[in-house]
């Protein structure tokens, strides 16, 4: 138990160190545009679909959309850079990644049984970068125990990025309202801080 607490407490500093080392290596090779990874949201979605199969856990479209959004939030909080090539939007029932919603909405409230692809081709790049896989695995570890409705409620709370855009800034009167990354980053920095045990000193 003590070892688990130690690993959990140091996870985020370890992950940030990994990102920093990769950034320095890329800078040495004069590739500043590649400092951080950005992915097609469907690549992240497919990663979580595979995780659900491996562990035999429920994964509906609603739950998947929220997991991809949360992963984006964690990445923003840790690196101050976006994970996704698409910006989240505030819809009536919470934050949404439109491409993920449309790709998997045909499953309704049912388990997702296939990876997303275009015309059956293996054309969605896989997530191969170790730091990103580590981050996604941590998000899955913490949030996969919740169903879609529970994750939706979690992202609907007062003062969440969705609430600030939808309720506090008039987003409900508009369509396709973007949730700014800086608001998402600020929120998930607080969320992550809550998972790090505080020192008694």
Describe this protein's structure.
This protein has 201 residues and is mainly α. It has one domain (2-193). It contains eight helices and three strands; from the N terminus they run αααββααααβα. Helix 2 (41-55) packs across helix 3. It is globular. Mean pLDDT is 83; it is low at 1-7 and 25-35.
What would a concise description of this structure say?
This protein has about 200 residues and is mainly alpha-helical. The chain has helices spanning about 1-30, 40-55, 60-80, 100-105, 130-145, 150-155, 160-170, 180-195, and strands at about 90, 95, 175-180.
List keywords for this structure.
3-stranded antiparallel beta sheet, mainly alpha, globular, 4% strand, 8 helices
Beta-strand percent range: under 5%
As laid out across the biggest beta sheet, the strand order is 2-1-3
**Could you report the average pLDDT, rounded to the nearest whole number?**
83
Low-pLDDT segments, ≥5 res = 1-7, 25-35
The N- to C-terminal Cα distance equals: 21 Å
The structural domain count equals 1
- The radius of gyration is 17 Å
- Order of secondary-structure elements: HHHEEHHHHEH
User: How many beta strands in the DSSP annotation?
Assistant: 3
Assign the structural class, choosing from mainly alpha, mainly beta, alpha/beta, alpha+beta, or little secondary structure: mainly alpha
The percent range for helix content is: 40-55%
């Amino acid at each position: 138990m003590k070892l688990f607490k130690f690993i959990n407490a140091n996870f985020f500093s370890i992950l940030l160190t990994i990102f920093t080392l990769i950034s320095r290596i890329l800078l040495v090779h004069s590739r500043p545009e590649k400092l951080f990874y950005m992915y097609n949201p469907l690549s992240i979605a497919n990663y979580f679909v595979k995780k659900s199969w491996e562990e035999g856990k429920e994964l509906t479209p609603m739950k998947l959309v929220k997991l991809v959004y949360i992963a984006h939030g964690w990445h923003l909080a840790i690196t101050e850079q976006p994970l996704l090539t698409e910006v989240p939007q505030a819809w009536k029932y919470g934050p949404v990644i439109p491409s993920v919603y449309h790709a998997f909405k045909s499953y309704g409230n049912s388990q997702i049984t296939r990876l997303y692809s275009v015309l059956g081709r293996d054309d969605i790049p896989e997530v191969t970068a170790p730091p990103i896989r580590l981050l996604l695995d941590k998000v899955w570890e913490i949030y996969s125990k919740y169903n879609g409705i529970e994750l939706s409620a979690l992202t609907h709370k007062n003062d969440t990025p969705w609430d600030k855009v939808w309720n506090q800034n008039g987003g409900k009167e508009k369509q396709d309202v973007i949730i700014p990354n800086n608001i998402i980053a600020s929120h998930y920095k607080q969320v992550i801080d809550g998972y790090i045990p505080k020192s008694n000193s």
